[in-house]
Amino acid sequence: MNLSELREGQTASIVSIQGEGPFRRRLLEMGFLRGTEVYVEKYAPLKDPIELILKGYHVSLRVGEAAHIQVENARD
After folding, report:
1. What is the pTM of this model?
2. End-to-end CA distance of the chain
3. String of b and e for 15-43 (b: at least 16 CB within 10 Å)?
4. Structural domain boundaries in the chain
């Protein structure tokens, strides 16, 4: 399942990040690492971007960027 498929209020664990180059490096530097828990706090009114909580930090990602992050164990 992709991170972009989660609903508001769900939590999941990161499995992998697809992509390469500067995009992937930027996500890894922001803390999107395998096994990290990510919580979907809210979507913007037009559903783009997504506001996430990751390691205690608030992070906003575009839906297209979130689609490159594979997650598992989605729960409410």
Report:
1. 0.88
2. 15
3. eebeeeeeeeeebeeeebeeeeebebeeb
4. 3-75
Amino acid at 30: M
Q: Which two tokens stand for residue 71?
A: 């997650």
Q: What is the C-alpha separation between 51 and 64, in angstroms, rounded?
A: 13
List the pLDDT tens digit at each of the 76 positions of the chain: 999 999 999 999 999 999 889 999 999 999 999 999 999 999 999 989 999 999 999 999 999 999 999 999 988 8
The closest of 45, 9, 8, 15 to 32, measured between CA atoms, is 15
Q: Which CATH superfamily is domain 3-75 in?
A: Ferrous iron transport protein A (FeoA) (2.30.30.90)
